[in-house]
Amino acid sequence: MSNTLHIYNLDRPNAAALRKMAGRDPEIRKDTVTNRWVVFSPARARRPSDFKSKDSANPNHTQSECPFCSGHEHECAPEIFRFPPDSTVDWKIRVIQNLYPALSRDVQLNPSSDGMVLTGFGFHDVVIESPVHAVHLSDLSPSEVAEVLLAYKKRIHQLSFHQSVKYIQVFKNHGASAGASMSHSHSQIMALPIVPPTVSSRLDCMKGYFEETGKCSVCEMSVKDLLIDESTHYISIIPFAATFPFEIWIVPRDHSPHFHEIDSEKAVDLGGLLKLMLQKMSLQLNSPPFNFMIHTSPLQVTDSLLSYTHWFLQIVPQLTGIGGFELGTGCYINPVFPEDAAKVLREVNLPK
């Protein structure tokens, strides 16, 4: 079984090929990782290079009384840990309890007799990524982004000791329309007593591919024409059946089931590539609201599952809405072909 992503030579298409790509007929593609069908309909969009967010997530004003800012720690829910851990020096990252948690760590997990209802047990934490209100994740250095990633790792390790926790979701909402209630840069961690259905569907799809081929579907992804950039340990791509326009995946080159197995070296490498993708997306798409999610494996898994699960980080800029077709079918319409989106982002030149 191959355990390394295959990187293909990326020859940029010529102008004639690009015109053909932009004018081609709609396609329906299936994602072999998420088991989702996506309709690609370029007739519904402008040119991919003209795609811009109308709702910038980076307001010019600052929030003078923000509880996440340095000096307002007493306004927050209890702190879990900080970095550096020495309370006598200024902190760079704080992990705190969510003041308005979706789940409660204080209730006992108690399923109903029919298994249809659980008490709302779980953990809901906030990672404050900087003490400075106006600093965003993309403003940090690769090593500083790595410290945020390693804070995720540390908190996941802590939560993994709770036997009732089955799955841990790390996510970031940036911008009000992406679900962020605070403009101060932060991300969130939720620990659940269940494996969510989207995760189960992804695992079932990857298992089916493995049983058919003996290989991991992520390791075997063809990234020809879909590659945006790459680093020592990671690649960034537009997935072959991207659900959303300009959706980005950052994927470990080597087979790795759990995000929290990341080490310091790989965290810095990932921090640099994540920063680059956020900068490219911001420049090309007018600083759009976005979400990112770390898709990893459930905590309590068998050895066989580890053979076909592969974690990745997904970034979704909020450029289009979800309508009745998507809600009714579970299929999404993407107006930008992945190959076009990848080419646009590859060619974004950041100011020096």
What best-fitting shape do the alpha-carbon axes yield? globular
Q: What would you call the structural class? A: alpha+beta
Termini separation: 42 Å
> In order across it, which strands form the biggest sheet?
3-4-5-7-6-11-12-10-9-8
- Give the overall average pLDDT: 88
Poorly predicted spans: 6-19
Order of helices and strands: HEEEEEHEEHEEEHEHEHEH
Q: Would you count the extended β strands for me?
A: 13
Please give the largest β-sheet.
10 strands, antiparallel
Helix share, percent: 10-25%
Strand content: 15-25%
Number of helices: 7
Radius of gyration: 21 Å
Structure explained in plain terms:
This protein is an alpha+beta fold and 352 residues long. It has helices at residues 15-22, 142-159, 197-213, 264-285, 303-306, 324-329, 338-346; strands spanning 27-30, 37-40, 79-83, 93-97, 123-128, 167-174, 186-192, 227-230, 234-237, 248-252, 290-295, 312-317, 332-334. The strands form two sheets. Strands 3-4-5-7-6-11-12-10-9-8 form a ten-stranded antiparallel β-sheet. The protein has a three-stranded mixed β-sheet with strand order 1-2-13. Mean pLDDT is 88; it is low at 6-19.
Task: Name the descriptors.
ten-stranded antiparallel sheet, single chain, 352 residues
Q: How would the blueprint of this fold be written?
A:
Layout: H1 15-22, E1 27-30, E2 37-40, E3 79-83, E4 93-97, E5 123-128, H2 142-159, E6 167-174, E7 186-192, H3 197-213, E8 227-230, E9 234-237, E10 248-252, H4 264-285, E11 290-295, H5 303-306, E12 312-317, H6 324-329, E13 332-334, H7 338-346
Parallel strand pairs: 2-13
Antiparallel strand pairs: 1-2, 3-4, 4-5, 5-7, 6-7, 6-11, 8-9, 9-10, 10-12, 11-12
Helix pairs in contact: 2-4
